[in-house]
Amino acid sequence: MDERTKMLISLGAATAANCIPCFEYLFEKSREVNLTDEEIQEAVDIAGKVKNGAQIAMKNFIGDIMGDSRQHQHPCEEASSSSCCG
């Protein structure tokens, strides 16, 4: 795997983990592999969508154990380009 791809994955992971110090460090290092702001933003956006999906899954789980029949649709179940999977 090339260094640019590794860096994009790392930035996404830092975003999903809410690790500000990690993101700050990686953001500075990303300049060494010539990532553009647009590439970084895309990785951050994807991480946010995946994280949102995990939050929805947790809300559904909590609703299930509390007897709430409402279910929130997971973004990966949507057939659109705005879902976390495509």
Task: Report on the architecture of this protein.
The model has no long low-confidence stretch (mean pLDDT 88). Helix content is 63%, strand content 0%. It has helices at 3-16, 20-30, 37-65. It is an all-alpha fold and 86 residues long. Helix 1 (3-16) runs antiparallel to helix 2 and helix 1 packs parallel to helix 3 (37-65). The chain has three helices and no strands. The longest helix has 29 residues, at 37-65. The protein starts with a helix and ends in a 21-residue tail after the last helix. It has one domain: AhpD-like (Up-down Bundle). The protein is elongated, with a radius of gyration of 16 Å. GO terms for molecular function: peroxiredoxin activity. It holds the Pfam family CMD. This is Carboxymuconolactone decarboxylase family protein. InterPro entries: AhpD-like, CMD-like. Residues 2-47 form the Carboxymuconolactone decarboxylase-like domain.
pLDDT < 50 runs, ≥5 residues = none
Shape: elongated
- Helix/strand class: mainly alpha
Separation of the first and last Cα atoms: 22 Å
CATH class wording: Mainly Alpha
Strand content: under 5%
Tell me the domain tally.
Answer: 1
CATH-defined fold name = AhpD-like
Q: What is the N-to-C succession of helices and strands?
A: HHH
Oligomer: single chain
- Report mean pLDDT, rounded to a whole number: 88
CA-atom Rg in angstroms: 16 Å
Question: Can you summarize the main beta sheet?
Answer: none
CATH superfamily: AhpD-like
**Helix share bin:** 55-70%
Organism: Candidatus Desulfatibia vada
Domain Carboxymuconolactone decarboxylase-like: 2-47
InterPro entries: AhpD-like, CMD-like
GO molecular function: peroxiredoxin activity
